[in-house]
UniProtKB/TrEMBL annotation:
This is Glycosyltransferase involved in cell wall bisynthesis. It comes from the Bacteria. It comes from Desulfomicrobium apsheronum. Keywords: Transferase. Residues 14-195 form the Glycosyltransferase subfamily 4-like N-terminal domain. One of its GO terms (molecular function) is glycosyltransferase activity. CDD domains: GT4_PimA-like (cd03801).
Length: 408
């Protein structure tokens, strides 16, 4: 099968970029021929280890194919980006024309059997309009639903094309409900298939750490919607011994705030920046507790990666986290209850002290388990992570491709 993959932004390999990378890798393993269209920054270089250059088309931002910085699917990205809600009408037209030109060229040259796009947003709408004759499968990663709420006028203009997508993949059950409600489509056209994790990078091994402090780890964007300032403030009331590792990147005032709060803890916080999957897996194996204090997520696969490495989990009780850990465990997973939020990813200021108290309590409880030598439950880890390998995930995605072809 010839599969054309479309991703609107690919400056790194996190989130949807990681997903597309694995779809290409698993597709090739299973005998399919991939082709990639990706929006990238002006100086981005796509490694041929992912896909040969003759089998990809890059839409370059920052004055090349498109004049403005790459459009992020979140309002805060770990690189210079354009916020969707700030797009002018002329910029939207420019974006549409650039992607339409490249998608049309790839259709003519590659003649795909199926298109697999990512995000129920601009690039997927353009793909449907340019190639109505080719079966189109789109994976929703969650951030696109957030943009429909933040940019309702632009979102409404896309819904006609998005309703024409043959099959949509939701990452978890609540997301499917949200998609059906947003687009008003038949639920039978929406398949629930999570993302996966790379078991070659994320795995457990015998703990050889002799650290005196309990090692906490956060990995993700350094910004407020991910709850990083909240985490750093909460730790002020968590007694030693602990050490926090922060992995990830950010930009602008949000990043500056996170780094300022991290510095206020002195030597008890280490800021690592961006790490490769291999390096992140190694760090996870040295840490006892992984913390995800986020206010908005799709399906947070980083929780699976951390658990596969033997970490206990402290996370907010977002729908994606609840889906992953539907079977509760008294010491392996602690969920912090979120109150009603003011926006899709911001709490009310009046609730911040309560949030800090709840997170601090969860961190103390996980610390106590570590210090009391409560061993991670390996049976529970295998039960939770076993169905999320990329090999198994791709087999289910492949079935969706075939269903899209049959539906035609």
């Amino acid at each position: 099968m010839r599969i054309l993959h479309i991703l609107s932004q690919m400056p790194d390999y996190t989130g949807s970029g990681k997903y597309v990378q694995e779809m290409i890798r698993q597709g090739r393993i299973n005998g399919h021929e991939p082709f990639l269209i990706a929006g990238v920054s002006a100086d981005f270089e796509l490694p041929e280890s992912l896909i040969r250059h003759e089998f990809c088309r890059l839409v370059r931002f920052e004055g090349q194919d498109i004049g403005f910085p790459i459009m992020g699917m979140s309002d805060v990205m770990p690189y210079p980006s354009t916020v969707c809600s700030a797009l002018t009408k002329l910029q939207i037209i420019e974006y549409r024309m650039a992607f339409a030109r490249v998608i049309g060229s790839a259709i003519a040259d590659f003649a795909p059997d199926v298109i697999h796009s990512n995000h129920l947003w601009l690039a997927s709408a353009v793909a449907r309009e340019v190639a109505p004759q080719v079966p189109l499968v789109t994976t929703c990663h969650g951030s696109c639903l957030r943009q429909h709420r933040l940019c309702p006028e632009l979102g409404d203009s896309l819904k006609g094309a998005l309703r024409g997508i043959d099959r949509i993949i939701a990452l978890f059950g609540q997301q499917k409900t949200d998609i059906v409600e947003l687009l008003g489509i038949d639920p039978d056209r929406v398949d629930v298939i999570s993302g996966g994790y790379n078991e070659l990078c994320f795995y457990a091994e015998e703990d050889e750490s002799d650290a005196d402090a309990v090692q906490f780890l956060y990995a993700g964007k350094l910004d407020s919607s991910k709850g990083v300032p909240w985490l750093l403030r909460s730790l002020k009331s968590v007694e030693a011994p602990w050490h926090l590792h922060l992995v990830g990147a950010g930009s602008g005032p949000e990043k500056d705030l996170c780094l300022e709060l991290a510095a206020s803890h002195g030597q008890r916080v280490t800021v690592h920046g961006v790490l490769s999957h291999e390096a992140l897996g190694g760090l996870m194996r040295r840490c006892a507790v992984f913390v995800l204090p986020s206010f908005f997520e799709g399906l947070p696969l980083v929780l699976l990666e951390a658990m596969a490495c033997g970490c206990r989990i402290v996370t907010t009780d977002l729908p994606g986290a609840k889906e992953l850990f539907a079977v509760p465990h008294p010491s392996m997973v602690r969920m912090v209850e979120l109150p009603d939020l003011e926006t899709v990813d911001r709490p009310y200021r009046a609730d911040e002290p309560l949030l800090e108290q709840r997170l601090a309590e969860a961190l103390r409880a996980s610390m106590a388990d570590v210090m009391n030598k409560v061993e991670p439950d390996q049976d529970y880890i295998r039960k939770i992570t076993g169905s999320y390998t990329w090999e198994g995930i791709f087999a289910r995605v492949e079935a969706v491709y075939r269903q899209a072809l049959e539906d035609r």
